[in-house]
Design goal:
- This protein has 187 residues and is of the alpha/beta class.
- The protein has 2 domains: 2-63 and 153-185, Urease, subunit C, domain 1; 65-147, no CATH class.
- It is built from 6 helices and 13 strands.
- A 6-stranded mixed sheet has the order 3-2-7-11-12-13, with helices on one face.
- Helix 5 runs parallel beside helix 6 (133-142).
- The two termini are 25 Å apart.
- InterPro entries: Metal-dep_hydrolase_composite.
- One of its GO terms (molecular function) is hydrolase activity, acting on carbon-nitrogen (but not peptide) bonds.
């Protein structure tokens, strides 16, 4: 089944022209691929009557690329919410990180929470390599794309991968989509 993501506007590249139309713009997805991009009316008609429609009040763009992902996931501890009273909610680095007893299991849990933060920021691709096996496993299981250093996510294209984010006026991600799957949605 196809899903039509209806938004106010679309940027096909990170810095590309803002595309909009009366009634909104849309991107249709089937499986892991983009099947149509255009005005909502055109995309909705092409997707068929059985397509699911999701409406987001924002701008749909290629997802963010995080070039510093290795440091973010391997040189910082992302506390569990249950540890917030003792450790706070922000990532710990330096002396605060050194004071923790970091096992492979704890690194894996930290990396999963770190990846969730990246997805919540609209990130769909990041750079490696990752030295810690637990971090590599967490990244692989998330489905987030690992690109070579200095790479950039490609443009949104018909038949291209359905990796994108929708950003609100405040700059925060409303939704992040990887391979056509909704992996983050702001509450």
């Amino acid at each position: 089944m196809s899903t039509v993501h209806r938004v106010r506007a679309v940027r096909l590249t990170e810095d590309g022209e803002l595309l909009s139309a009366p009634g909104g713009y849309a991107v249709a997805v089937s499986g892991s691929r983009i099947t149509a991009i255009g005005s909502y009316e055109q995309v909705r008609a092409a997707a068929g009557e059985h397509a699911r429609v999701r409406e987001w009040d924002g701008v749909l763009t290629p997802g963010r690329y995080e070039p510093s992902a290795a440091a973010y996931l391997e040189a910082a501890y992302h506390p569990d919410p249950r540890e917030a009273d003792a450790l706070g909610a922000e990532p710990l680095t330096g002396a605060a990180l050194a004071a923790l007893e970091m096992t492979d299991t704890r690194w894996g849990h930290s990396a999963r929470r770190g990846v969730q933060r990246l997805l919540a920021a609209g990130t769909t691709a990041l750079s490696g390599p990752f030295a810690r096996a637990a971090v590599r496993t967490a990244v692989a299981r998330s489905g987030i794309r690992v690109l070579p250093p200095a790479a950039q996510p490609g443009a949104l294209t018909v038949s291209g991968p359905a990796d994108f984010a929708v950003f609100a006026d405040d700059g925060g991600a409303l939704v992040t989509v990887l391979d056509g799957r909704l992996v983050f949605r702001r509450r």
